[in-house]
Design goal:
Blueprint (H helix, E strand, L loop, with lengths): L4 E5 L4 H12 L4 E5 L4 H10 L8 E4 L2 E4 L5
Parallel strand pairs: 1-2
Antiparallel strand pairs: 1-3, 3-4
């Protein structure tokens, strides 16, 4: 079963780390997709963000959030 939340990340991104920590603390399961070296994931990220090169991109159900501002 897939988690209801997907977080598109890249290594070394402090905002990605903060977002993942937020979901862990709330015990909300999530799938993490590293977009580095993954052309298909990069393409999906750019589609979700309407071409903006930003991480994290968080997909929670049908809601897409660009970046991380602390929840």
């Amino acid at each position: 079963m897939m988690a209801g939340v997907t977080i598109y990340t890249k290594p070394g991104c402090p905002y990605c780390a903060a977002a993942k920590e937020h979901y862990r603390k709330k015990s909300i399961p999530f799938d993490e997709i590293n977009v580095i070296d993954n052309p298909a994931a990069q393409k999906k990220l750019l589609a979700l963000s309407k071409g903006e090169r930003i991480v994290p991109v968080i997909v929670d159900g049908g809601k897409v959030t660009l970046g991380w501002n602390g929840g």
